[in-house]
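hey so u asked for the seq, here:
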Amino acid sequence: MSSRANAVTFKGEPKSLAGPEVKTGQKAPDFKTLNNGLAAVTLGDTPAKARLFSVVPSLDTPTCSIQTKKFEEGIAALCDAVACYTVSLDLPFAQKRFCAGENIKTMHTLSDVHDHSFGKNWGVLLEGLPLPLLARAVFVVDKTGTVTHAEYVAEVTAEPNYATALAALKAAS
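ran it, structure tokens below
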């Protein structure tokens, strides 16, 4: 598997990312994750409409919590025209508990804990940490399965550009 050296920083330290860089205009890579009911979810299992994948290291951290809540608020006006997911390595049980506690109803959670296929295929699996984590990123995929927006947040502890991601999602819907 390829690795991109010094692709991001984590708390100021350069880190490599496993997997290829996903770019705008390419077909979205497949993955196999788990939803909070422990069912397998692949890209093909997501609806053929505009999709947002908000990738976070862990929902148990303040920035990841903020990111999920901001996207939850931002997609409210788009209703059923889009499908939105928060992807992390958190266990599905923890993701479900977080969503219930924070009243997250529109953002669906996907756990990449099993084999890190989302992290590896989308180029967001952080290397060189004592435990596996995903880097912070946001992707928008249109109804044809083409990536229309890709943001790898340069500093993993920083927030993404919500306005740009939401504009791309709206344009893709």
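The radius of gyration is 14 Å. The mean pLDDT is 96.
lmk if thats what u needed
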